[in-house]
Amino acid sequence: MADKMATRQAYGKALIKLGEKYPDLVVMDADLSKSTQTAEFGKRYPERFFNMGIAEQNLYASAAGIALSGKIVCASTFAMFAAGRAFEIIRNSIGYTKANVKICATHAGITVGEDGASHQTFEDIALMRTIPGMTVINPSDAVSTEKLLQQAIDMTGPCYVRLGRAAVPVFYDENDDITLGKGNVVKDGKDVAVIATGIMVNEAVEAAKVLEKEGINVRVIDLHTIKPLDEEIIIKAAEETKAIVTAEEHSVIGGLGSAVAETIVKKRPVKMEMVGQHDTYGESGKPEELKKKYGMTSDDIVTAVKNVL
Predict the structure, then answer these.
(1) pLDDT digit string, tens, across residues 41-53
(2) Which of 45, 157, 247, 287 is placed for a possible disulfide with 200 were both Cys, Cβ 3.0 to 4.6 Å?
(3) pLDDT tens-digit profile of 111-148?
(4) Cα 145 from Cα 6, distance rounded (Å)
(5) Exposed (0-12), middle (13-18) or buried (19+): which is 20, by Cβ within 10 Å?
(6) 184-308: which CATH architecture?
(7) What is the reported pLDDT for 1?
(8) Among 121, 25, 131, 34, which residue's Cα sits nearest to residue 80?
(9) Residues 6-58: pLDDT tens digits?
(10) Residue 56 is a catalytic residue
(11) Are 217 and 281 within 8 A, CB to CB?
(12) Where in the chain is the domain with CATH 3.40.50.970?
């Protein structure tokens, strides 16, 4: 495994293996197969690949029909177009019917970079977690992407898989246990718990290293499954540490931070800070510069930890 890989790239590689393992797997796209990394599946299994063109509502309506006929469907486009443009179709045709469609949405968050505000979605987790029965997954690296995608395909029913454009460090090992619906303690600690998802898990690990040098012991949790939420790992963190910080490449409204807050306010209230997009649009720029400007770096997590303590 490379030291860095985009989760969308890991998704494309995983599809090739899964295509051989599951003869009922169908992959669909909306004229973005090179970007979403589904193109290679199309070359290997042309009879099971459908490019629906720039017509996202049709993509997901057709995906629902194919799934309800007995197939497993992975349907991909950019997260903005999947969660945004096709929301009503996903809600009614996939969610309501419990169709076996995996909505594998790439290019999520601020790290879309130069594509700018129109393509940087910070609302998708919030939208998808409101759909009854929808599983919501946000892998943090290439290894977790492959493992969680396998489990998403093995389960029956609708699932939203959030994937990124930019290459991110691979920190999981192939032998690590990554289970859908169960968070992972990446680093243990007693002073504060940083609960992160997606690319922000690596930022949390880097922040913990900085804080350790200052005598602050940080527990880092990868909450790769936003729904169903692992309430047990959250409550345990609230009981065993002094405070919680959440970190996500998503709006702090309705995303991971909201989900964690909903849990602890009912079960074990503690002080809490949220790192993420704070009710603003993004802009065009290089991913790392945008992360810095909009407050989604390890430095921002360090600041949030100090504030909450």
Answers:
(1) 999 999 999 999 9
(2) 247
(3) 999 999 999 999 999 999 999 999 999 999 999 999 99
(4) 10
(5) exposed
(6) 3-Layer(aba) Sandwich (3.40)
(7) 43
(8) 121
(9) 999 999 999 999 999 999 999 999 999 999 999 999 999 999 999 999 999 99
(10) yes
(11) no
(12) 4-169
